[in-house]
Amino acid sequence: MTKLDSAMERFSSAVDRLEATINRQVVRLQAAKSLQAEADTLKEDRAALAEELDQMRSEARRLNELNERASETLADAIEGIREVLADA
After folding, report:
1. Which runs of E-coded beta strand occur in 1-88?
2. d(CA 76, CA 9)
3. With pLDDT > 70 as the criterion, what percentage of the chain qualifies?
4. pLDDT for residue 41
């Protein structure tokens, strides 16, 4: 084998290794882009869920306030009925 053949073989081997490295990097980049897209989707989902949770908490507070008012009204009505029955 001549020096040129040996050099060509080393060059070819180096090019093959370079191509393999580039291919691995492309695969890693695609995986990273895919993970980033998933992370972005999860962030959007989290934001939507956080907003929905805030709305539900607000609705729960509103319902609790209505419940307290209804309980007070009912207690007042019961007290009024007791007073009427006591006077009768």
Report:
1. none
2. 99
3. 100
4. 98
